[in-house]
Amino acid sequence: MMLLLLQRYFDVITLKQCKKCKFKDYYFISVMTTFITNTLICPHCKNRMYSFEITSYFINKSEVFSDGKVDSDSPIPSDYKILICSTCNKPFWKEEALLADQKIDDSTTDLLEANNIPNLFPGFEEDHLQKHTIFYTDLLDMDFADTEEKETYIRIKIWHLLNDRIRYQTSSVFSNLFEYHKKQTDSAKIKDLFKNNLLRLAKIYKPNTDESQLLMAEMYRELGDFENASYLLDSMDTKNNSAYQQIYEASKRNKIKVFKLVK
Ligand SMILES: [Zn+2]
């Protein structure tokens, strides 16, 4: 049996009021979120630990960006494919650490939870984006990704992190002035990393759905390769959806920055 524990949480009735227009515009009743607990064994030190996986969920409000990143106010199924050992602090692929025999017994009830990578880089730390990005680039340098599928996963993380600098740019004049010098120093290195990462990602990425083809077109658009972006966009079957039209429009206007999709 693959499941160690199955826990269900029922949310109470929630009625929220929009802060801007005061209209009570959304609510949900008895939404069920299901968690599965997996038992893992560290490939490095053989320590046993556990991790949660969310299998059903309800998204209340979310923001979707052109590079495929989704920010939501409710937990979404975690895509934490890489975890950190709670004992030796080394990273490992979750799928390779799952214990074949996931049975419940007394020896597994006191396990520590495996760490998630974002928890290592809390958002209040000024250089969290930089450290987080370096963490993933170091993983690639040490050949942590031994298949193109794993490399794709890490390179998408790097792409999203580099785009976070644009995505969550503060509008404060003071913080912009404070950041100005640092940005000038870093910008050449970041541009190189952004370009090389995305070029390699576009090379190994294997789109097999309209959504993934749109994401690949977005990679070329952000690289400024509008010829390849247009080629992919023109060859797609589904053209009448909002995300397609917004990315198509941005590509036609030679825009290269990530942007929030309007619903
Ligand atoms: Zn370990």
Describe the secondary structure blueprint for this structure.
Blueprint: E1 5-10, E2 14-16, E3 26-28, E4 32-41, E5 48-56, E6 62-64, E7 70-72, E8 82-84, E9 91-93, H1 94-97, E10 112-113, E11 115-116, H2 117-120, H3 128-141, H4 148-167, H5 173-204, H6 210-223, H7 226-234, H8 242-252
Parallel strand pairs: 5-10
Antiparallel strand pairs: 1-4, 2-3, 4-5, 6-7, 8-9, 8-11
Helix pairs in contact: 3-4, 4-5, 5-6, 6-7, 6-8, 7-8
The chain binds zinc ion.
Bound molecules: zinc ion
Number of helical regions = 8
Uncertain stretches:
1-18, 21-31
Total beta strands: 11
- Principal-axis shape equals globular
Cα separation of the termini = 41 Å
Can you offer a commentary on this structure?
With 263 residues, this protein is α+β, with helices and mostly antiparallel strands. Among the domains are: 123-187, no CATH class; 207-263, no CATH class. Helix content is 41%, strand content 18%. The protein is built from eight helices and eleven strands. The strands form four sheets. A four-stranded mixed β-sheet has the order 1-4-5-10, with no helix packed on it. A three-stranded antiparallel β-sheet has the order 9-8-11. Helix 3 packs antiparallel against helix 4, helix 4 runs antiparallel to helix 5 and helix 5 (173-204) packs across helix 6. The relative contact order is 0.10. Mean pLDDT is 81; it is low at 1-18 and 21-31.
